[in-house]
Amino acid sequence: QVQLVESGGGLVQPGGSLRLSCAASGSISSTNTMGWYRQPPGKQREFVAVITRGGSTSYADSVKGRFTISRDNAQNTVYLQMNSLKPEDTAVYYCNLVYGMSYWGKGTLVTVSS
Question: More exposed terminus of the chain, fewer Cβ within 10 Å: N or C?
Fold first, then answer.
């Protein structure tokens, strides 16, 4: 069983920054891909960023240049540094781990508003 716990969400003004964390525990292979997805209010869940065990990354066009995904393999933790936040970044952010199956955290709310 794999558990993912997100933290770091909150309220931030436009132009501000937040750093999300996701700690994974349980039966985790040394080979896995971790990432972040988000679900804006009234919309479907969408891809944000992903990082492989080796550090290769991919981003949604809407966050390129503003968000940075990173991971600490020793701690089984993935991070999402979010800079220059916009109101349209408001969403519940979900951590994802792929190891045979796809596992999800419960999400953390990010609200960008003045």
Answer: N
Whether 81 and 68 have beta carbons less than 8 Å apart is answered as yes
Judge whether 107 and 4 are in contact, CB under 8 Å. no
User: 21, 7 in Cβ contact below 8 A?
Assistant: yes
pLDDT tens digits for 44-98?
Answer: 999 999 999 899 999 999 999 999 999 998 889 999 999 999 999 999 999 999 9
- pLDDT tops 70 at residue 30: no
For residue 80 the two structure tokens come to 């999402």
Rounded CA gap, 79 and 34, in Å?
10
What DSSP element (H or E) covers 102? Answer: strand 101-104
Distance between CA atoms of residues 82 and 80, nearest Å: 6
CA dist., res. 40 & res. 96, Å (int): 17
